Amino acid sequence: MSETKTALVTGANKGIGYEIAAGLGALGYRVGVGARDGVRREAAVEKLRAAGVDAFGVPLDVTDDRSVTEAAGLVERVAGRLDVLVNNAGISGDTGPGWVQDPTTLDLGLVRTVVETNVIGTVRVTNAMLPLLWRSPSPRVVNLSSSVASLTHQAASDAKAGPVMAAYAPSKTFLNAVTVQYARQLADTGILVNAACPGLVATDFTGFQGPRTPEQGAATAIRLATLPDDGPTGSFFDDEGVIPW
């Protein structure tokens, strides 16, 4: 088995996911670019390779059991183990003007769709990759969350609360809760599991509105993916430190 560390980043063909892959690649990781769209996935792989990253494509739809199982098999064939899993793939779901998702008129189908990707998809991928993570001497799992997941900020309606997003924001709160449950279950195993907030980043996800670049948005996830063995687990961070639940 190669001594090179391997990372898998879901939703890595563009935006923050791509920059997480690029950042880990620059640190010497072999990087699996997980993405549904084959053309965009392979374009990202070629761009990473041109930058000197040891990258490989991983066809991956986090909402599909077979796709995730096949992705785990591919990572095993390529690398034999997995050292870092970054669950970055996520969706906001349809919004009204100002990114609002009004809870009083919310389409329940939208809620199901958002949770299927942002929460169930993360559980699906994490559990499929756990056998490969167990083979790593220092496995790390990072779940991409958002400051809007913070119930403290939401209840205070402060500047960090953002717009009312009755499907997206609770899905990220749910994701944070799942992150804590994994950290509790895997305590004392060496697998560190944390949630990362990238901040408001100018990508197609936000309509290219936001003060932060994708590179800046990737920084916290990269830091959590490369924590030392005595690093934190079961916590929620942005680049300023711990975010209140």
Q: Descriptors for this entry?
A:
245 residues, alpha/beta, eight-stranded mixed beta sheet, 7 helices, 42% helix, globular
Shape: globular
- Strand residue content: 5-15%
Could you tell me how far the N terminus lies from the C terminus, measured between alpha carbons in angstroms? 39 Å
Q: Residue share in helices?
A: 40-55%
| Oligomeric assembly | single chain
Instruction: Enumerate the strands of the largest sheet in spatial order, edge to edge or round the barrel.
Output: 3-2-1-4-5-6-7-8
Please, what is the average pLDDT? 93
Radius of gyration, taken over Cα atoms and rounded to an integer in Å: 17 Å
Structural class, from secondary structure content?
A: alpha/beta
The count of helical stretches stands at 7
Order of helices and strands: EHEHEHEHEHHEHEE
Number of strands: 8
Low-confidence segments: none
Largest sheet: 8 strands, mixed
Commentary on this structure:
- The structure is a single chain.
- By secondary structure, this protein is of the alpha/beta class.
- Helices cover 42% and strands 14% of the residues.
- The protein has 7 helices and 8 strands, in the order βαβαβαβαβααβαββ.
- It has helices spanning 15-26, 38-50, 65-79, 108-133, 151-156, 168-185, 214-225; strands at residues 6-10, 30-35, 55-59, 84-87, 140-144, 192-196, 236-238, 241-242.
- The protein has an 8-stranded mixed β-sheet, sandwiched between helices.
- Helix 1 crosses helix 7 (214-225) and helix 3 (65-79) packs parallel to helix 4 (108-133).
- The chain is globular, with a radius of gyration of 17 Å.
